[in-house]
Amino acid sequence: MPRPGSGAADRLRFSILCLTLALLLAALFAASLALGDVPVSWRALAAVLGGGSDVSPDARMIVVDLRLPRVLLGALVGMALAIAGTISIAIMRNPLAEPGVLGINGGAAVGAMVVIVALRDPPVFLLQASGFVGALVLAAAVYLLSWRGGTASLRIVLIGVGLSALTGAVTSLLAATGDLAAVQRAMIWLAGSVYDASLLKVERLLSWLILPAALTLALARELDLIAFGDGTAKSLGQPVERVRALMILLCTVISGAAVAVSGLIGFVGLLAPHIARRLAGPAHLRILPVAALVGACLVTAADLLGRLVIAPGQVPAGIVTGLLGAPFFIYLLWGRRHGKG
Length: 341
What we know:
This protein is mainly α and 341 residues long. Helices cover 77% and strands 0% of the residues. It has a single domain (78-337), classed as ABC transporter involved in vitamin B12 uptake, BtuC (Orthogonal Bundle), CATH 1.10.3470.10. The chain has helices spanning 6-34, 42-49, 57-92, 104-119, 124-145, 153-177, 180-191, 199-218, 220-226, 230-235, 240-262, 268-280, 284-308, 317-337. The mean pLDDT is 84.
């Protein structure tokens, strides 16, 4: 029986957790705006953000035109990947699942590679559209091929892995036969980065994510139920197949939009949900906002590290998250093998 006042204390702890993560994200924002191959002093940064008139045009251009869109886009991409990863883990009941299992990453990679190799220098909007359409097509293929009078998590995972391998082969074939300059541009996109961010991209991604993210949060209880297993969820009155189909659609829309603007930034959809679960507990109503904040922090920090490690050169954020995520993935595998996960 819960102690009197324990609910209020629990809500207070959750509020403190969210506030702490928000402050961490704000600190990463400030560092990302100030630091780089051309540093901006903290005083100049405060003046730019405060709308001061005694700021040099160079400092204003660096902060407002170059770094601010990049930081905002990175945070949005991190939030989107974290939410999509939380959905994937819940509907597949597999702690090693991430949006890539649904074919989203592979489909986006093929779509973008085809456009880049075929047109050599495609407009940005076409590259984003091709990546998004590729993600949607592969996710639909995974779902339809896994249908046998219903879907099952294991079939989705196995078919997703198989189709992802196929898309990897197609991507490699295009890379081997395409124009060298076009292939190099494609490889940069596939590495995952927000270096070409703009406020227009930020606005478009934000407007695209608001509705599906809000709907996912509203359906948090459905994620709690389906995570227990199909039998348990059905016994509690959940229409499992319809919920799973809707959640796969939301995951694809959210993750596909993020991949379309940033390329393949891996492991955020795996890292953020697990960290959020450790911090916030098992309820998805709490996991989702915490995972979104953690994902934003991860991508923002990865982009900042990528800009500082070999400045003035840059390491794509996707490579940094890969270096961080691979050991964590191995840890999860080890924990499951020894009964810890």
